[in-house]
Design a protein that fits this description.
This protein is of the alpha+beta class. The chain is 23% helix and 11% strand. It has 3 helices and 3 strands; from the N terminus they run αββαβα. It is globular and about 45 Å long.
């Protein structure tokens, strides 16, 4: 797969799936847990080669999805806490991980090579 330009307006087309559709439409198995080894903050700029960004970025409370920030994801199962929770313990854990601000283009092959390079653990 090569470059993809999206719409004529230059805006990127983004698919939106509900979790059940990932399994029924795409045949993907949903994970019940995951392990974070690093955090990426991508910015997509058409026509750009993938590269580290010139900015430092860290995880903030604004990066978390909540019922108040994401009205597209209603709490249909009633799993969200009824009162505000303290984000600081999670921010501390995530802040200890390697974090990379990156710029990506629309060239899937180049993006993939770059992401593999920056996410592959190095031997000590």
């Amino acid at each position: 797969m090569g470059s993809w330009s999206g719409k004529d307006s230059g805006k990127e087309l983004k698919p939106q799936f509900f979790p059940d559709q990932l399994a029924t439409w795409l045949g993907l198995t949903l994970a019940s847990e995951g392990h974070v080894t690093r955090i990426l903050f991508p910015r997509i700029t058409p026509g750009t080669d993938p590269a580290p960004a010139d900015t430092d970025r860290t995880v903030t409370s604004g990066d978390f999805f909540t019922a108040t920030t994401e009205d597209r994801y209603p709490d249909v199962f009633g799993l969200l806490p009824t009162s505000a929770t303290d984000d600081q313990p999670l921010l501390n854990l995530l802040g200890a991980l390697p974090q990379h601000a990156v710029t990506l283009g629309h060239d899937v092959t180049a993006n993939t090579s770059f992401l593999v390079q920056i996410t592959t653990p190095t031997a000590s």
